[in-house]
Design a protein that fits this description.
The protein has four helices and 14 strands. By secondary structure, it is α+β, with helices and mostly antiparallel strands. The strands form four sheets. A five-stranded mixed β-sheet has the order 2-1-5-3-4. A four-stranded mixed β-sheet has the order 8-7-10-9. The chain has a three-stranded mixed β-sheet with strand order 6-11-12. A hairpin with a 2-residue loop joins strand 9 and strand 10 (about 185-190). Bound molecules: FE2/S2 (inorganic) cluster. FE2/S2 (inorganic) cluster binds near residues 40, 42, 46, 48 and 85.
């Protein structure tokens, strides 16, 4: 019987684990059957990236990936050459060693790993800064709708992966990060915070228009039209170290 060895993952299996795998079943099913609670937001239907794993050994023994899987993998956090979606890889007769990335970019799962410092959700201008012109613009938006502040989050978008979403705050979300930045009552969605840390927003003139521009040091690639972007795992700031 082939074996699956899972390298230690802080939240899912801190000590690592090794078990005899069931051939013909997906790696994801095998992990779940052995209490490695890997995320699987789309219920193994190849419609999310949350079951992403990296094959340290055994990659060449795996079934070929489909176009759909390849497209989704482009959005995965911490993508590497030997990355696969575990729900789409079937165990054959070879042993496998896998690494589960520290994060998933999962905007819907309730089980997304939370930042370590749960009690401190206050943000300062070191975490996220707003220029004078952007503050003036954002505060006029807030005033025009009588809102409590501005909420920033990431959403799935376009060919490169993600886009910024700005909402006026009607209802305060319990887990949001919050701070008064340059006079703006700013809220940041908890799951997006780690990917936004260090960002500065400016409000600039572009041709005849003015628009908000995000200067985000964590972004590693943008699509040609500049509408969407992705992240490099190495550029993500680990909240547990701050
Ligand atoms: S669980 Fe969604 S792609 Fe694997």
């Amino acid at each position: 019987m082939p074996k699956i060895k899972v390298l230690p993952h802080e939240d899912l299996c801190p000590e690592g684990i090794e078990f005899e795998a069931e051939q013909g079943k997906s790696v994801c099913e095998n992990l779940l059957n052995h209490s490695v609670d890997i995320e699987h937001a789309c219920e193994l239907s190849c419609a999310c990236t949350t079951c992403h794993v990296i094959f340290v050994e055994g990659f060449n023994s795996l079934n070929e990936s489909s176009d759909d899987e390849e497209d989704l993998l482009d959005k995965a956090w911490g993508l590497e050459q030997r990355s696969r979606l575990s729900c789409q890889t079937i165990v054959s007769n070879s042993d496998l060693t896998i690494e589960i990335p520290k994060y998933t970019i999962n905007m819907v799962s309730e089980n997304h790993p939370k930042p370590k410092n749960e009690s401190n959700r206050e943000i300062s201008s070191i975490d996220f800064d707003i220029s004078n012109s952007a503050a003036k613009h954002l505060n006029s938006m807030v005033a025009s709708k009588n809102s409590s502040g501005v909420r920033i989050s990431l959403k799935d978008s376009g060919c490169s992966g993600f886009a910024y979403q700005i909402d006026l705050v009607e209802k305060i979300e319990e887990n949001d990060f919050n701070g008064l930045i340059n006079g703006v009552n700013l809220f940041i969605q908890d799951k997006s915070f780690v990917f936004l840390k260090g960002t500065k927003i400016d409000f600039v003139k572009k041709n005849l228009n003015e628009e908000l521009v995000f200067l985000n040091p964590n972004v590693s690639a943008e699509c040609g039209c500049g509408e969407s972007f992705n992240f490099d795992s190495n550029s993500i700031i680990d909240l547990s170290t701050t």
